Amino acid sequence: MLLNSYQVDLIEAGCDEAGRGCLAGPVFAAAVILPRDFYLEGLNDSKQLNHQQRDELRPIIEKEALAWAVAAVDHEEIDRINILNASFLAMHRAIEQLKVQPEYLVIDGNRFKAYPKIPHSCIVKGDGKYLNIAAASILAKTHRDEFMAKIAIDYPAYKWDQNKGYPTIAHRRAVMEIGPSPFHRKTFNVSDPQLSLPFEEQG
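Above: the chain's sequence. Below: its structure in token form.
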């Protein structure tokens, strides 16, 4: 069972990212502040849900959250500062856009670059433990999937509408046969099947 909050006496934002292990497109991050009594049937880590379930939960989260924001760092910035720093930057941008100032941050994962003047905790597999991180994971994932589906229209060979930029066999083969698109991350090694990054489920 997912818990409602980590610091129950503070206004807390949950943060998560999507697209870190992709070959193409931005990394997206979301920050979400939920009401203290928030409950949503089926809310879980976005990787445990299918596309339809995430799309059904997203508008409810966006309507009922006290505040939420989604931000991105594009492929060019990723190449300049590396994917880890880009993930932190995307989270910082999302936090900055929140209409309610959080007093505490809970971050999915084991590393984070501190946001100015707001304490935080890193929660390993936090998207399966806390509702606000799970909500952030769904918003980051659905907003990124939506972006990838739009740019897939102009670059159908890479099948981004299906793989969302993740390193599937078909995606890697397309890059090796026809070359990278303008949206591909140039610093990512396409020939290595594992890409030295954790593979994420497309859903």
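The chain has six helices and five strands.
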